[in-house]
Structures are given as structure tokens and as C-alpha cells.
Amino acid sequence: MRTAAARDVTAAVRARADIRAGRHTGPTSGLAPGFAQANLVVLPEAYALDFLRFCVRNPGPCPLLDVSGTGNPCPETLAAAADLRSDVPRYRVFADGRCIDEPTDVHRYWRADLVAFLLGCSFTFEWALAAAGVPLAHQRQHTNVPMYVTDRPCVPAGPFHGAMVVSMRPMPPADLARAARVTARFPAMHGAPVHAGDPAALGIADLASPDFGDPVSIADGEIPVFWACGVTPQMAVQRARPPVAIVHAPGHMFITDLPHEHYDTAAPAPRPPGGS
Amino acid sequence: MRTAAARDVTAAVRARADIRAGRHTGPTSGLAPGFAQANLVVLPEAYALDFLRFCVRNPGPCPLLDVSGTGNPCPETLAAAADLRSDVPRYRVFADGRCIDEPTDVHRYWRADLVAFLLGCSFTFEWALAAAGVPLAHQRQHTNVPMYVTDRPCVPAGPFHGAMVVSMRPMPPADLARAARVTARFPAMHGAPVHAGDPAALGIADLASPDFGDPVSIADGEIPVFWACGVTPQMAVQRARPPVAIVHAPGHMFITDLPHEHYDTAAPAPRPPGGS
Questions:
Q1: CB pair distance less than 8 Å for B184 and A265
Q2: What is the mean pLDDT of the segment spanning B171-179?
Q3: Which of A52, A92, A205, B190 has its CA 20 to 30 A from that of B172?
């Protein structure tokens, strides 16, 4: 159910205030527990329609949560009091596809023609996996999740194109069905795995050499399980080479006012009247 | 899982060929069984970005399945050989928010600046409800599902705004949890119910007088169950009064090449290697 209920958003508001004031400039993992975090992509309006097409055509890696009004730095349905120019701990600013800055505030790059896109982030499904008792190797090993560029092309849209990027979490085969069932409940957070087992089936040559993040050790008897990853749209944006693009720095996400459960398609349904 | 498998799409292709040739001009209920059908909205590109914002901000009533390239009448990810100017049995054409024609082909209204949006349709979740043994009153009574304008405002975007429209299916309270669980698996087809029980909670005064469709009789002991409805975006489009808009006529949907299961978030997940 996506209906909104009155809810205490103090923890999310406080975390964003700390970030805005420069008191927190690191990764957001563990900040404001219970609240969904989101990937940020900011583009000139001239690119917005094609980027939206790219996201709609590739919903696994690019699940859309909100799109701001042109020039409006507030993602109103995710956090009505937020300012996307200051409320992400660290940004990456691109000019013509080249990273030119990694600031903690992007007021000076903001333009009246910019549109902000918020996309689902795997932190939400990792929370659900942990809640379901599926252990996560990269958390146990205190590293970033490993990510790989696959040989599966995304459906292109205008200047946006490229391969799907996946994240990988190893687990015993006995955990796979449960992990798939749990993450499938969160289609707005990348949903169920796209593949389990042989990495060559995705064109991945060497699990020990991820394209992003850190390698994790895979225990005897474990298999690698792959999910569509939010780095996919960032790579497509770099390839499109817009005059300006702003994204969050890896791991430095936008914290929303919405709890993880908001995106759980299996969350409690309406109850019959009469309390029966 | 949204991965595509090789699949026999003959029935969908044949149904669209019949429609294109004018051999079928009626509603599409029951045509090409097993294939997902979609709502159609066509707008000038100048309205496309705001309409996409409206859909992203209101995913319950407005689940996006695909967006065509500007001027391109093909929804490539849903049916690569289709032509949206001819492959819907009947259209409604609006000028400045007023219906000016209900043709079976819209070649003469097509313009190079038009963008087509395909949105999820409840036919898919009705198929899933039937498969799960939840009987549907309007099918038993051979009428259209009743639809009501609620007092719940959608999140606006540019000129697009208005209340959420819901469809209603009565059932015994004992069926509610199952119906909610089954439809929740299809977030791209409106997902779980938004409400069950007292219609006044949605601002609906009289179930016997639906705003669209036909009334259904509600048996003793049954309760009304309400789902977000694809008429919502059509009403928002009429209110926005674009110079031209083309939508499908009620019940006359676009038939895709994708099976209902494609949109089932609980569809079978990857299996562990080795066939275990």
C-alpha cells in the first residue's frame, strides 16, 4: 500500500539538517535507520524527457521515485522540506560527461533549467534481507557491495544508453529463494535478482575485480546473486555527455521522509470493516 | 522478474492485425488471452514531461509501462511491430479538453510532436484474481466494472491535477486478504486495493451511481473493495486541456506482446545452478 500515514519523520529531518549544515559529509549507510534512501540524478530539462524514457524502459536498474519541477530543488513527494542542493553529503558534478567537482553543496551549480530525479536504492532491500535473516557478506566484511558492468544492454532512449550494472551478494543456495521473494516485494528498489550463479552468463569475467565497490570473499558452497544496480543510470548519464549533470557521490545518498515499508508491495492491506 | 524470454506472441500479433484491419472494433476484454493490455494516452511533447511527472508522483492510478519516442507511434518495449495509430479498436480524440471524435484509426490526427504513454490496466490483475479463485461480480453480471471519482487529490504536476478515480469489486470479507495479496504482486497494474468498506471514506456518496461503468449488485455480507483506476490520468488530461490528446475509448485497450506474468513481481526467481 502506498497510502501515507501520519508518521514521525524527526530522524530523517535531523539527518538532512546535519548534512545540510556540513556536520555529516560521509556515506549515509546507517543514517536515519528505517527511512528509504534514494539515488540522485540532476539534468537540464532538455534531457529530462529522454532520461525519463530511459528509466521507464529500464525499470529494474532505474526505478523512478520522484521527479522535481524544473528549477525546483525539492523532491516534494519524498521530503517536502528538503533541498537537493544541500541535503546530499557529497555530490559529483559532470560537464560534458567529465567529473569536474565533488562538492558537499551544489548551490553554485544550480540552474533554473535543472530537473532532479530520485531513483530507488538497494539500501531498502538490504534492510528487508537483513530483516528476513539473509546475511550480507559485504556488511559482514565491512566493505562496499561489489558492482559489475554486464553485457546486457539497456533499452536506449535518445542519448541515454549502455549496459546494465549489477550488484552482487553471495549466499548459500538455500537462501536464494527467500532472498528473491523478499527483494521482489520492492520493485521500486530494483526488485528480485536478475541472475544467480555463473557470472559469465552476464559477461562478468572475474568476480574478484568489480568495476565499482570492493570485492567480497565468497565462502565455500556459496553462489553469487546479482541484482540490477542504480549505477546503471549514472553510467548512461555520463555517456550522454550533457553540458551539466549532478549526481550523488557513491554511497552518499538522499534520505527521504518515507519508511522502507512504504515501498513494500506486500505491506498490510486494507482490513475488512468491523475489525473481523 | 522482468527478463524477456523467447515467447510465442502470435495471439497478440493476430489480435492487433484484426484491429488494424478494422475486423475488430469492439472492447478488447477476452482478446488474446494471457497478454497484458494497456491504457493509451497521447499528448504533444510540450506536455510530456509534466505528464510523466504526474504519473511518477501518482504510481497507483498511473503506472507507466512505456513511453514512445516523440513522433514515433510504436511502443517498442511492449510490442515492437505495433502501430499505435491503428492498433487500438477505438480512440477518443480531444481538442482543448473536449472530445471531438471517436474514430477507429488516428492516422489523420497524428503529428510529429506527439508522444504516446502506455499505462497499466486492471485486466491483468483481474486475470490474477480469477486465477486465485476470487470471483468478480461485474464479470458474473456481464457489466463493466463500476468506477467512482473520489475525494483524494492526486499529487499535481504542471497542468495535470485532479482526484483519484477508483474501480470497485465487491467480495466477502474472507476474500479480501487474498485479493489484496494477489493484486499487490502487480504494482504496474495498480497493485493492492486502496480501501475496503465504507465508500464515504473515499467521498463516494452512492455505490449505485458510479461515475463510469455500470453499477453491480453487492450481495448480502459482501463489502466493496476499491482499487486505483486508469481513468484517473484520462481525467487529468482532460483538465489540462492540451490542444490535442488521444486516448483509448473505455474498454478498447492496446494489446501488448507481454504476458500477464511479465508484471508479476512474485514470478519465479532465478534458480540455483546445478538444478538443486
A1: yes
A2: 95
A3: B190
